Amino acid sequence: xxxxxxxxxxxxxxxxxxxxxxQGHSSVVYDNLExxxxxxxxSDVPFIxxxxxxxxxxxxxxxxxxxxxxxxxxxxxxxxxxxxxxxLYYENNVEGVRVLLEAMRKxxxxxxxxxxxxxxxxxxxxxxxxxxxxxxxKKPQSPYGKSKLIDEWxxxxxxYAHGMRGMALRYFNACGADKxxxxxEAHDPETHLIPNVIKAALAKETVTIFxxxxxxLDGTCVRDYIHVxxxxxxxxxxxxxxxxxxxxxxxxIHLGTGNGYSNLQVVKVIEKVLGMMIEQxxxxxxxxxxAGLYADNRKAKKILGFTTxxxxxxxxxxxxxxxxxxxxxxxxxx
Length: 334
Description:
The protein is of the alpha/beta class. It has 10 helices and 14 strands.
């Protein structure tokens, strides 16, 4: 298959490109590099530096590309930033998806590509029960989560109104790094637990755990950690599934392991992999942090044949550690 990967210079998009290449597929990357890294894109993968809101360039790319599937990995994804600057999230995350859907609608006679959208468990806010199933109530608590839910609604409406095929894949905690090296998590600022603990440990600094008074086994937050390469594989399976369907279709599917690990459990595994103790302090809870988030992944298994290969915690942490030990002092955007 041939893929257009919007946001392919980012963390998940760049890992997707490598896994797709290993499986024999070709990709074209479309990214404005505002939050992605040119170094993350293999030199033999065609690259278009352009903004998703540039409808002219986007339409020309889709019209001439002969793509089987279009992937959207181009969202902003910092919850705190979305609260302080919601305008960024409604412009990039919502308007960007609307522009993409309009381009696909206008070019449907020339390109019948399917759409796979990168969504999030943030659409649920604080869940009503665990594990979280696809049909559970959606009550997003941040502009980021709201933007993802609006996008899901738009994609569903366009699919059924205009005979398109689309799928939203809701991530839980994407983590780890490519097993062959060269790329990994490099967010700025970094808000994710595993890279922050690894970086603090390597620098011999104290790790802050946000809250130890949640209603969990050890009082710290519980999350579902899935290796980014397993996520990439699920996206390829989603394209194969949608391409085999006829007529309008839309679905939303959870991508997680179905298991939850607390912050303190994650730190203990990082200590084991590193072979050293990590100094910790307990800080205040972060606003809006649910006690637990982990997926009911039965639908992914049934529809996509989804399985995980790298999502045990030790493998996740070992690949992430290798990346942080070899990574250059910051990527260059450009």
